Amino acid sequence: RKIHVVYEPLAAVTDVHRAMEPGVPQLGGSGNVVVQFVESRGDVAAAFRGASRIVEGTYRCAATDHGSIELEGGTGWMEGERVLLDVHCQTPFTVQRGVARVLGIRSDDVAVVATRAGGAFGKYLMPTVDGLVALLVHRTRRPVRLVLGRDEVLMRRPKRHDVHSRYRLAADGDGRFLGIEVDLLVDAGPYRALTPTVVAVLAAEATGAYDFPAFFVRARGVLTNNLLSAPERGYGSQQANF
């Protein structure tokens, strides 16, 4: 009851294509494109000039929830001047450092018990309720338990990256692949987080299991006001199957 929130509505950027247009709100300190990887080999232009068939298309792998049966939550309490957290996480030392920054205290004054997770698939690489629990514990000096409901998990928690892709493929008369051009836009949500690692995998694996004499792949991570994105089972490999 003592927590009062005041909201100031701002224009939202919810489309990765629009996020790169001139004049849109800049969500990051150096623009909305926060990472780019390029992979290339051979003469792609020559491959398309010599092609008997050219196939192209645009595709999308939309954001999906990680779908863990377990709800997200945790418990915290004070032990002397030390904040103790029992939370689900895949990187307890990252949680420790992050909570210390939130509270403005030393990392040594935060201890994390990494409880066995009942399903994570990558989303527990991102902050969950740890910062909220820690803040309440530190301010009230009392034990706190917070468990999100399923509706809160679906509406507010990280999702697999939403990936928009454009593929253009050149083949000869016998069906052999000569070259390919790929442009990938990856929705990071409002923070960089682990998007650079996902974008790197997408760039490296965009040609799939095929041997192309020539290719050019560009993958970019773009900030939006959508939900935070988190890796899920393969770090982008699934979104490059086209």
Give a description of the structure:
- Strand 3 (73-79) and strand 4 (82-87) form a beta hairpin.
- It is built from six helices and nine strands, in the order αβαβββαβαβαββαβ.
- By secondary structure, it is an alpha+beta fold.
- The strands form two sheets. It has a five-stranded mixed beta sheet. Strands 5-4-3-6 form a four-stranded mixed beta sheet, with helices on one face.
- The protein has helices at residues 16-19, 44-49, 92-103, 130-140, 150-156, 195-205, and strands at residues 33-41, 53-61, 73-79, 82-87, 110-114, 144-147, 162-171, 177-189, 214-223.
- The mean pLDDT is 94.
Précis, in short:
The protein is an alpha+beta fold and 242 residues long. It has 6 helices and 9 strands.
Major sheet size, sense and barrel closure: 5 strands, mixed
Count every beta strand, where a strand is a DSSP E run of 2 or more residues.
9
Low-confidence stretches: none
Helical/strand content category: alpha+beta
Proportion of beta-strand residues? 25-35%
Order of helices and strands: HEHEEEHEHEHEEHE
Helix content: 10-25%
Averaging pLDDT over every residue, what do you get?
94
The strand line-up of the biggest sheet is 1-9-8-7-2
Instruction: Note the total helix count.
Output: 6
Q: Roughly how many Å apart are the termini?
A: 50 Å
Spatial extent as radius of gyration? 22 Å
Shape: elongated
